[in-house]
Design a protein that fits this description.
The strands form 2 sheets. Strands 1, 2, 5, 7, 8, 10 and 11 form a 7-stranded mixed beta sheet that branches. 0% of the residues lie in helices and 62% in strands.
């Protein structure tokens, strides 16, 4: 049985009027009302915030990984874009092995949005995540205890 890893992901948030608190310090904001909408969720090798434009560049977007043998580990980044969020929200990304339903890791944090019509961009830099066997691995996105959606990677052996 694989042990579950817990960590706070490092986040980038480029939209005006937004803040992310990876350290989980208290912020003065109203608890978010309503369910944000997940616009996009992608897995990539690395995501970089460009210093001059503030734009996030996703490098090496993928949904399939090939490994020499199982079990294995692989670092990944996850980009998510949300809208219709106003107030303070707690989020959680659960990394789940679909074959067994086992939660292998999770990232937790919070963000604050001042404008429901704007977007919130989140970028989580995961440490090497476990790949115990072939199959699908889901990245489930939860905000204030509500499931918003998910993205995935499929792992396969080489050869």
């Amino acid at each position: 049985m694989t042990s579950q890893d817990n960590f706070s992901g490092s986040m980038i948030d480029t939209a005006a009027g937004r803040s992310y608190n990876g350290g989980m310090e208290e912020q003065e904001a109203t608890t978010g009302q309503g369910k944000p909408v997940l616009v996009a969720a992608l897995i990539c090798d690395v995501a970089v915030k460009e210093p001059t434009s503030g734009k996030i560049s996703l490098i090496g977007i993928f949904d399939r990984v090939h490994v020499k043998e199982f079990p294995s580990k692989r670092p990944v980044s996850m980009y998510a874009k949300l809208t219709e969020a106003e107030g303070k929200y707690d989020f959680q990304v659960r990394y789940v092995y679909s074959n067994t339903g086992e939660k292998l890791a999770e990232a937790k944090g919070n963000f604050t949005s001042q404008d429901k019509l704007a977007t919130v961009e989140l970028n989580l830099q995961f440490p090497p995540l476990p790949l115990p066997g072939e199959g699908r691995y889901d990245f489930q996105i939860w905000v204030n205890g509500q499931f918003l959606g998910q993205t995935f990677i499929d792992a396969a052996g080489m050869g």
